[in-house]
Amino acid sequence: MSSSTESAGARLVLNIYIGLFVLYLFLPLAVMSAAAFNSFDYPSVTQWRGFTLQWFVALAHDQRLLQGLANSVMVALGVIAVSIPAGLCGALILTRLGQRSGTVLYSVLVSPVLTPGIILGISSLIFWREFGVPGGLFVAVMAQSSFIASYAMLLFLARLQRQDRTLEEAALDLGASHTLVFRRITLPFLAPTCFTAAVVAFLQSFENYNTTVFAIGGEWTLVTEIASRLRFGLSPVINVVGVIFVALTLIAATTYVLLKSRPAR
Amino acid sequence: MGSLARAYGRPLAAVIAGITLVWILVLILVPLGAMLEQSLWWRDAKGDVSLQIDRLYNEISTLQLDRAGAADPARQAQLDAAMAQKQAEATALEAQEKNPPKTYGLDNFTRMSGLHLYIFVRTILYALMVTGLALIVCYPVAYVVALASGPRKAIILTVALIVPYAINELLRVYAWLMILDYRGVINGVLAWLGFINLDAREWIPFLENPSAVFLAMIYTYVLFMVFPMVNTLETLDRNQIEAARDLGASTLRIHRRVIIPHAKPGIAVGCIMTFMLSAGSYSVPAIMTRGQGGDWFSQLVYRQFYESNNWNMGSAYAVSLLVVCTAFILLMMRLFGVGLRDIAK
């Protein structure tokens, strides 16, 4: 059931346009991935010196990158621990507030999403220095959480809008305590969103650069380490990191589509 | 608050409100306030203070020589007193040098040099151009994904858009760095065709041109424009388009009178996100130019913090950037008639 609103010519032009757009999106990634397998010691596809896996081995022995990976995972877990409860509580309050006071609170809680990342990093850096905490992994967790919690809150809000409140009310009428209702009805209803929000938070945190680079001080994450290396020149080891990211994303996206399209049809 | 307590009970409601309050204060408002405060004062580091100190120590040394040569005890006592007085003066000045007094005012904002102001304005203009170009490039894409394709194709296209979107921002910039570098893909192809000779360093310096940053920036942030637009367009009833067509409206008119008005909130959100991301982007200019192309404002901010170590000036720069971004958001909301609730959907 394709739309009949276009003439055949217009549809052809649109299809070519979309094709070019997708090519524009993927070609740079393909070039980057291919160069990871070139045995030339500068990442290149035009000067091909034969297929190799030596850069994968080099990555496995790169202590700073591996430490960066570990730091990234730690920061991401920290961000999940901070932003999921914060986002959940913010959403619970907002769904119960009236229109007026709700809008003010909503504006404050959403504002970090609309703030440039470097400003979140800077303000956290300044704030925590007052308490004698210098830039590092902890400040990075705090800086990232300020906006990732907002994303989590938006996910929870969307879910809570579809909640049938009579269920909770019925349980209360039947004599269940508030804590029991929250544990047995509200939380199970929100559990899938908790999972989604945690995944989103992990990915957001893991790939974040603009906020982290200001908050990280002398420490480093995988992404900030890659960035500081790029200043001194390119290395195929970075391409290997790229290939791994591209592969993981492709696998995740395909799984997601397969899972989503199967029960629907 | 009352309905929250009614729904979850007082203790639980208190916990929920408490966590939200901590989030607002510790992660959002107080850090912003701290940054604002930092931008409003400076320490007067007068260069001549250290000169004065040096001069005092010179005088003390001279006095010491005199003291060593003097035989008369009265003269000795007099020189000792003079030395002690000079030493006290020097110590006081040293304390001032180490910890100059705070002065509050707007000087951090007004002292921005002409060059930095120029870079600030240029960054804003570039960000506006990135936003405008991204909008033009994305509108047809969003239109096709949301309206002009069957459900199967729409899913495939969505995945095709999500995959690059989900890949690390930095790696997307890196891919372009590889393509445009001196020994990059484009120069490599040109060399292979025989136009240039890489061994003679005859490459074309794409990276020294500001448009390299531009290109990579559109590539990096274009999808933040696509998704909000797709989301709003998907809710448009296709029958409206059919009806307009049946009533004889031209394609252009359908877009202008039916589709674009419906897409307004999406366009506003897309523009806000793209502008905010590109105006505040540190990754793209820092990596693409490697200090050789023109600076973007975010790089100046970074240097104030991590190279000049002037946090007050850096905060003032950051506040200026925040003010412009906020103004842009408010302007877009007014222009497109959307509220904050529409933005974050």
UniProtKB/TrEMBL annotation, chain A:
Residues 69-256 form the ABC transmembrane type-1 domain. The chain crosses the membrane at residues 12-37, 73-94, 106-128, 134-157, 185-203, 237-259. The keyword Membrane applies. It is a multi-pass membrane protein. InterPro entries: Bact_Polyamine_Transport, MetI-like, MetI-like_sf. The keyword Lipid metabolism does not apply. It is found in: Cell membrane. Pfam families: BPD_transp_1 (PF00528). PROSITE patterns: ABC_TM1. Belongs to the binding-protein-dependent transport system permease family. CysTW subfamily. This is ABC transporter permease. It comes from Ancylobacter radicis.
From TrEMBL, chain B:
InterPro entries: MetI-like, MetI-like_sf. Keywords: Cell membrane, Membrane, Transmembrane, Transmembrane helix, Transport. The chain crosses the membrane at residues 12-36, 119-142, 154-175, 212-230, 266-288, 316-336. It is a multi-pass membrane protein. Residues 120-334 form the ABC transmembrane type-1 domain. The keyword Phosphoprotein does not apply. Pfam families: BPD_transp_1 (PF00528). The keyword Glycoprotein does not apply. It is found in: Cell membrane. Belongs to the binding-protein-dependent transport system permease family. CysTW subfamily. This is ABC transporter permease.
